[in-house]
Amino acid sequence: MKRKKREKFIKSVLRMTPKKIYNYINLKRFNIIIIIMPLKSKQQRTVLEYIWQDAEGHYRSKTKIMPTVCWEDSIETTPLWNFDGSSTGQSDAENSEIYLRPYFKCMDPTRTLSNQKYAQLVFCDLWIADTDENGNYQYEEGLCQSMGGQKQTIKEEVSTWIHVSDIDAREKELNAVWAKVGGRKLKLKPHRDNKREPARQLFETNRLTGSDLWFGFEQEFFFYDLETMDILGWRGASVPEKQGKYYCGVGRSSAVSKARSIAEKVMKETLSIEGHLDCCGWNMEVAPGQCEFQIRGSGLKAADNLTYFRYILQKVAEIEGYGVTFHPKPKDGDWNGSGLHTNYSTTLMRYTNGYKYMEEAINRLNENHLEHMAVYGKDNKMRMTGKQETSSWDKFTWGVSDRTASIRIPRQCYVEQCGYIEDRRPGSNANPYDVCVALANTTVMDSDSYKSYDASPDIPLSFGGMVESGIENRKVRMTGFGESHEIDVLDVISEEVVKK
User: Fold this and answer.
1) 289: left (phi over 0), alpha (psi -120 to 50) or beta
2) Is position 341 within any domain?
3) What does residue 325 show for φ and ψ, rounded to 5 degrees?
4) What are the C-alpha distances in Å from 174 to residues 76, 103, 141, 152, 213?
5) Long-range contact list for 179-183, CB < 8 A, 24+ apart?
6) What pLDDT score was predicted for residue 155?
7) Residues 14 and 129 in one domain
8) What are the Cα distances from residue 243, in Å, to 40, 256, 291, 425, 479?
9) Which string of DSSP letters, residue by residue, matches 254-293?
10) In this structure, what are the phi and psi dihedrals at residue 38, rounded to the nearest 5 degrees?
11) Nearest Cα to 148, choosing from 185, 179, 177?
12) 184 CB contacts (<8 Å, ≥6 apart)?
């Protein structure tokens, strides 16, 4: 009887809300002691998925669970982390620490917590310790915003135990503590696999800011079964029906049906992220099990968006039991390969009479054809045979509405004498930062037509460009959480810009 009574009482205590429970309950009547630590709001946890790419360009990630505190939730306040580079082919075991520096984060659409705000994807580029010619570390003053560093430790202690709700008082307290501590931090430099940092520096120059480069990526890929490793549509020695019915096909085969099912989930997860990674469409492609998503953006943002999308694509496919291959030619024979066709324009191309700048860009791309092919993806030569809607790997061609050419000019752009060009050469596994840098250097940085932007990047933006610039400056998109908040267009662009 006593045992049942005791169990009943314990269950009733455990069902109580934290507000009704004492931190320490001494139950002498039942000869037991229950210690309960209620989970207060300041003790909630944030799940951060830190994501990077290894030496082969494959995604790696690891999870960090941290106390949730009422700080400004921005990329600047997200700590650096590190990983064992010797296990990813990016360092020696004797000097294995590579630093993950966050540059973008958004909600994690694949994790379901009570509040999605506390599940985040954190995309990082790679950095290593800088040394002098003798191998000695180089230092800078201040405290590093690192995961296990002194600055983060102080921050967590102050936020947890001091000024729980008064953020202004907390910031004042923190700054005072940090000033007393002083400290030093490692000087970092980009890792050899960090393609983003040199691209960022290039796209921040006046010439490229003024030229306002737009990129629209057509990311093709194949799904494959993670258990059998067969491309979707193939089963061992069984070969699917020849190409023809799969492109934008509806109800034509089980391969189309399964690929559509996964792609629809990818689309939903992509669109659930605030800003939706500028995904503007998708379709079934020419070969069975092959799809294409269209991802776009201005300047560096385009390459960033594609990097985020590729991760989400593979994560969703993995949940469904499938993998994604970006190999340019995963199946030999009369089957289409996968490309990363890149639609590209500058301010001058998009304006009236911009066709002459499109022609100038094509001529420069012709002169630098092989230099571009060198960075347009591993094994891309297997795809570019002059067949299956490709040009020859070593021969440059262009034409209006010609999908067998290196560069295609859309017919509407030819009619209007302005617009964009499509570079059909990049393979599906090409690094988007390499592609953007190559196009920018060849067509803008090496061209006298854009010299006027060197002094000042002041250009007439479209109304959409004004809004986009305002959103980026306010970092509204940077949060990427699914909170419901409407943005007043006039609230994100200045009064002076509206008058213009």
Assistant:
1) left
2) yes
3) -115, 130
4) 16, 24, 17, 11, 41
5) 181/143, 181/150, 181/154, 182/141, 182/142, 183/141, 183/142, 183/143, 183/150, 183/151
6) 60
7) no
8) 59, 12, 14, 21, 43
9) HHHHHHHHHHHHHHHHHHTSTTGGGEEEEEE-SSTTEEEE
10) -65, 145
11) 185
12) 139, 140, 141, 142
CA–centroid distance for 296 within its chain = 12
Q: Are residues 395 and 408 in the same domain?
A: yes
Entry pTM: 0.80
Among all chains, which residue has been given the structure tokens 């024979």? Answer: 333
Residue 401 Rama label (left phi>0; alpha psi -120 to 50; beta): left
- CATH code, domain with 172: 3.10.20.70
- Checking DSSP bridges between strand 340-345 and strand 214-225, what pairing results, if any? antiparallel
Q: 356 and 322 in one domain?
A: yes
On the question of pLDDT at 479 being above 50, the answer is: no
Q: Are residues 313 and 434 in the same domain?
A: yes
pLDDT at 470: 63
Structural domain for 12, as ranges: 2-38
Report the pLDDT value the prediction gives residue 132, as an integer from 0 to 100: 87
Do both 164 and 213 map to the same domain? no
Residues 208 and 72 in one domain: no
Is the confidence at residue 146, as pLDDT, over 70? no
433: CB partners within 8 A, 6+ apart: 195, 196, 199, 300, 303
